[in-house]
Amino acid sequence: MPAKLTVISGPDRGRAFDVLDDQKLTIGRGETTNTKLKDPTVSRTHCQITCEAGRFPVEPLEARRIRRARRGRKGSVRSRRRTEVRRSKPRLNTS
Question: Which architecture, in CATH terms, is 3-87?
Answer without folding.
Answer: Sandwich (2.60)
